[in-house]
TrEMBL record:
Segments forming domain GST N-terminal: 3-85
Name of one Pfam family that matches: GST_C_3
GO cellular component terms attached to this protein's record: mitochondrion
Lineage: Eukaryota, Metazoa, Chordata, Craniata, Vertebrata
GO biological process assignments: glutathione metabolic process; L-phenylalanine catabolic process
InterPro entries per UniProt: Glutathione-S-Trfase_C-like (IPR010987), Glutathione-S-Trfase_C_sf (IPR036282), Glutathione_S-Trfase (IPR040079), Glutathione_S-Trfase_N (IPR004045), GST_C (IPR004046), Thioredoxin-like_sf (IPR036249)
GO MF annotation, one: glutathione transferase activity
Every GST C-terminal domain range: 92-217
Taxonomic source organism: Seriola lalandi dorsalis
UniProt-listed Gene3D superfamilies: 1.20.1050.10, Glutaredoxin
Name of the protein: Glutathione S-transferase rho
Length: 225
């Protein structure tokens, strides 16, 4: 069934990892895949651009249906393969509502994380300001504290309660990215416990970014956050 699927991806990219986790959770192994290097700018290659004109990864196709937005691809896979693998949208209305809320709040976490981690890459040296760095770091700190509070209050081990859901599929890669870039496990114990508790989940372990296995620690950009 997965042989009519193609995924073009890059190692360490949370959007790519989301789709790979979803495919594993739905028992859709054996899909066509190819890894591209961000460092070598391979995501701008004709092969990627042909499927995703934005020149971004992931690029995902099922039959003739192209879904390059990772949230859309994950939701599509759950919708089309409901009865296969693990169910990723809870039946309980309360858990389902919380799942969708946390999923889409994840965009804010992603944005604030990117503002800090990618600042030096995105902003030319002559346009960088210490005040902007300070503002972005404070905003990310407040955001992570909010997620610390969410995990303190939730009834269960997962973001939306007692079952692993699309909220975890979409947010776990972002949270893992935070710790890879030096987020303090001591300062955010609930977020750290969540991160560590899912490391050995089969879908996550099977798709752990190969470049992270080769080089387990990234830059300590978030060490003092």
């Amino acid at each position: 069934m997965a042989k009519d699927m193609t995924l073009l991806w890059g190692s360490g990219s949370p959007p790519c990892w989301r789709v790979m986790i979803a495919l594993e959770e739905k028992n859709l192994q054996g899909y066509n895949q190819k890894m591209f290097s961000f460092e070598k700018m391979e995501h701008k290659s004709p092969e990627v651009m042909n499927m995703n004109p934005r020149g971004q990864l992931p690029a995902f196709k099922h039959k003739n249906y192209v879904l390059n937005e990772s949230y859309g691809a994950c939701m599509y896979l759950e919708s089309q393969f409901k009865s296969q693998g693990n169910k990723l949208i809870p039946d309980c209305p309360a858990e389902q509502a919380l799942m969708f809320q946390r999923m889409f709040e994840g965009f804010t976490l992603n944005q604030k994380m990117g503002d800090v981690i990618y600042y030096n890459w995105k902003v030319p040296e002559g346009e960088r300001h210490d005040s902007a760095v300070k503002r972005y770091r404070e905003a990310l700190c407040a955001e992570v504290k909010m997620w610390e509070g969410y995990l303190q209050k939730v009834s269960g081990s997962f973001l939306a309660g007692k079952t692993f859901s699309l909220a975890d599929v979409t947010l776990y890669p972002t949270i893992a990215y935070l710790f890879r870039f030096g987020l303090s496990e001591e300062r955010y114990p609930k977020v750290a416990a969540y991160y560590n508790s899912l490391k050995d989940r089969p879908s996550i372990k099977a798709t752990w970014p190969p470049t992270w296995l080769e080089k387990p620690q990234g830059q300590d950009v978030l060490k003092d956050l």
